[in-house]
Amino acid sequence: MPSETSKSTETLAPRDEALPGPDPSGLSPETPDAVATGPRVAGAVVGHAKDVSDIEAGLDALQTTVAPTASRWSKAFHAVYPPVLAIAILLAVWQTLVWLEVQPIYNLPGPEQVWEAVTRAAASGTLWQALGTSLERGVLGFLAAVAIGTPLGILVARVRWVRVSFGPIITGLQVLPSVAWVPAGIIWFGLSDATVYFVILMGAVPSIINGIVSGVDQVPPLYRRVGQVLGAGRFQMIKDVILPAAFPGYLAGLKQGWAFSWRSLMAAEIIAVGGGIGFGLGAFLQQGRELSDMALVFTAILLILVVGMVIELLFFAPVEKSMLRRRGLAPETSTSKGSGWLLRRRELAAAAFGR
Amino acid sequence: MTTTSPARTGTPVATTSDEDTGPTTGVRLRGVSKRFSPTGAPVLDGIDLDIAQGEFVCLLGASGCGKSTLLNIVAGLERPTTGDVEVAGDGAALMFQESALFPWLTASRNIELALKFRGVPRSERRERAAELLSLVRLDGSGDKRVHELSGGMRQRVALARSLAQERDVLLMDEPFAALDAITRDLLHDELERVWEQTGRTIVFITHNVREAVRLGQRVLLMSSRPGRIVREWDVDVYGADEQRSIEAAAASRLATEITNDLREEIRRHAV
């Protein structure tokens, strides 16, 4: 067999040179056969391999779609205008209610009066003081809750007996309104920052633990099997397979943890006023109530709301979005077609009227 | 149908075979049985199997015949109830029907993770992953996320990841079952090429008879409940230099013969 192939390649060269003339090596009876089969087969195999790689490259190109990227400005516009529209609608409703005088003006101040109260509080510095105090507590308390809740969550998710024994209690703690801890905190720690942080932790830690646990529960069993097959050690399995796979659930837990931190903080600040406790947004709100200054109360409520939204928009939303995009879970954002609901309505209308 | 075929005795390149003259064992099973409950019916019953190093064997059977259980046992994910399992090197790599790539990593990082678990130093991982991607003809796709790859590309990355384990034996559990026919045909060619280049021992599970004939040097038919190996064929229908193809007429005839046996096997279970 090898001799046959070598002979055929030898005979191939002269044959190609003297193409029009009769085959010089065609004298022996078996060479024409070899010439006929040898090179043809070899050529076929090489051609086949080339074919395969070409077809494959074609298929790869056909089956992968490149998402059209919209311009930065159009993206920003489409992200910003729906919420701005919503705020405008809410302001209009508010102003209409004020004009209709459903309540006397001192009970229901309009946007104008509230704006005045905001600028007054900003000018006197109380607004910035309250905002700064509360933000610092909220963020520090939340970070502490993350630092405590994350390892505890891994422990609950991974160790069976811990989960069976403590799981229901943690779920119960999550349901318990953290305001309930304020009196206990005051008795234990007095009117100090410790009370505030205690309430934040009691509110946020169970959420974070539950986030991790549900994230770990939702890890497809196949991923664990892959980790096992690839030979991951116990620690590597947790660090490189289970935690990244559980990240969406963890992030949801963190978001909820932040919401609970912020709420608990406000509850604590409203109830525990004075003593060594600083002046936060809750105290600001309480002050408004004591002065029966409705514009001040509205100012405090708006500030609390805005902080919650800003943290969500500046921190959680980008993290969540990039996580979803990386994992291919983000909805198709084909901005070229217009992602705004108004545009979509217009398209629907156009389709309906056959235009 | 019992002659050992001279066709495609794929020349192993990267095997760590010793100077033994005869073929060294890739996988050897002796009297392997498996029951999931002590009183229940056995899923696998007395399986004896010898697979030589560098051999490509296809394991064929109807659904529920315990093919996957057998593969899990060879992979070391499950223990047999009785019997001995011997696998060349330190265990087997396993590839699944789903690519099971991690969506939070890029194609290259998925492969690098396998290298990391094997203890390959960080500095060598990226280069090694690029070589493996190149082996499955995905040069330049290393930075793509899993969702950006087509089904066929994902399975090729998964194949590269299995190869990254550097195990002599590669077990494949219906790896192409979820792919369209065109892609599957191409992946047959790819897998054959990779097998020839790397000299791995491959045990390939499928319920697709034509696929088994297209790929395997040997095709084993398993019965269901209990799972036993009831028949085997040497695939000697292709000429020595002939490019294997799923459409070849001789292959069709063998596939028909095997299909008849498979159907007969399934029919036994009709009440």
TrEMBL record, chain A:
Keyword Nuclease (UniProt): no
Stretches for region Disordered: 1-37
Subcellular location: Cell membrane
Keywords carried by this UniProt record: Cell membrane, Membrane, Transmembrane, Transmembrane helix, Transport
Pfam families registered for this protein in UniProt: BPD_transp_1 (PF00528)
Transmembrane segments: 80-100, 138-157, 169-190, 196-216, 265-285, 297-317
Entry membrane topology: Multi-pass membrane protein
Compositionally biased tracts (Polar residues): 1-11
Family named by the database record: Belongs to the binding-protein-dependent transport system permease family.
Protein name (record): ABC transporter permease
Species the sequence originates in: Oerskovia rustica
Automatic annotation (TrEMBL), chain B:
Chain segments carrying region Disordered: 1-30
Biased composition (Polar residues): 1-16
One family name in Pfam for this protein: ABC_tran
UniProt KW keywords: ATP-binding, Nucleotide-binding, Transport
Annotated ranges, domain ABC transporter: 27-249
Gene Ontology molecular function, alphabetical: ATP binding
InterPro entries linked: AAA+_ATPase, ABC_transporter-like_ATP-bd, ABC_transporter-like_CS, ABC_transporter_ATP-bind, P-loop_NTPase
Record's keyword annotation contains Nucleotide-binding: yes
Annotated SMART domains: AAA
Keyword Nucleotide-binding: yes
UniProt cross-references to PANTHER family, sorted A to Z: ALIPHATIC SULFONATES IMPORT ATP-BINDING PROTEIN SSUB, TAURINE IMPORT ATP-BINDING PROTEIN-RELATED
The name this protein goes by in its record: ABC transporter ATP-binding protein
Organism for this UniProt entry: Oerskovia rustica
